[in-house]
Amino acid sequence: MEVLKFYASPILSLEKLKSITSNVHMMRMEAQANLPCHTSPKGLHKDGEDYICLYLMNKSNVKGGINTITDNDKNILDQFSLNNPGESYIIKDEKVWHSLSAVECNDESSIAIRDTLLIDFIID
Fold it and tell me: Among 45, 51, 96, 116, which is 20 to 30 Å from 72 by CA?
């Protein structure tokens, strides 16, 4: 619950509203040797909610998994990787497009795992 309060507070102050509905989705990406894991949908996309937050919970043996954020004309604004548990980002979905490159195994003798919480915020 503290994570939701942490991310909802600045949104409330920006939007000057009294309430936000949030949905939380836990996502695990798991890759095996020579079998990368792709997000759905692949490539640049919008999620259709007001704000989107991605919070890294766990990452092990991962190569790839690069986040790309573009403006609405699809000019790259930033590319980065979340590497440590607790790292996160938040976007206003109507202002940007986003994507994640495939997650692959850094060491092909074991699986790669990337666990995240996707929190979407809907302005009420």
Answer: 116
